[in-house]
Fold:
Amino acid sequence: MSGIAIRFATPDDAGLLLQLIRELAVYERAPSAVVATDEDLRRFGFGPERQFEALLAFLDGEPAGFALFHPRFSTWLGRPGVYLEDLYVTQTARGKGVGRRLMTRLAAVAVERGWERIDFQVLDWNPARGFYRRLGLEHLGEWLRYGGDAAALRRLAVDDSPDPD
Structure:
């Protein structure tokens, strides 16, 4: 059996984490979408006002994947939860238990911290949807993803017109 090791990322792992993020972008058919830098990851993941954490997976000592996550709050539950921003397993490590181990460790972190919910998104074409179902995690079909980029936020921040609806 292969040796899978999972550990929290450290500031020294910013370059490796960025490499894996870029591999994820290629997998998700958006190779030029990553504009993050090592410094961005160090600042927001390991600075005084941490915005995310990451678990790194290694298979027989080689980088095999990551789970990047951050806390969130459920107004309905009145409790904190975890948002899994990205889960990625390298092509050579797929099918060897790495994804399951990352999710198991993330679930343990959530339980340890009193986080009572996990939320994440999956592309509709991604075969990992079956993996998540096998873990007992379900697609919440009624909910639609909405969002805006930095330009949309800047426009909205100065919009003082009345809502016509």
